[in-house]
Amino acid sequence: MLYLEEFMKFRNGINRYIRMCEKEVDELNILDSVILTALRDNPNMLAKDFSKMLSIDPSYMTRDLVKLEKNELITREKDGRQKTLRLTEKGERICTGIERVKGKFLSELFKKVDPDELEASQRIFRAANKVLEEGKF
Question: Quick check: pTM over 0.70?
């Protein structure tokens, strides 16, 4: 059970980071932050591809996108039967704040971690994600 204890400590740290991000973006939740920053890195993406990339249920993603559009953080433009997503200027400003918090958090989190341990952790997460995706647990 040592793995579970360490995982829970790590999860609590991530939750602190999430709260820091939420303070930065006021009315938005962490999913909103993830969507905005991912959209910043993948401009003009189709909504269906975006949902798949982030592993978010399409109907849940649609509800969140409607909220982001209502808050004038994104635009959803029809492109035939699909909708293309774009950040607004306001969305770009919010992303800048999120990136500032994320950069500070990650630099503090990993500055004392050995690079070999980071690589090993990445391999563990990949293997665990593969098992979860295959549903073999």
Answer: no
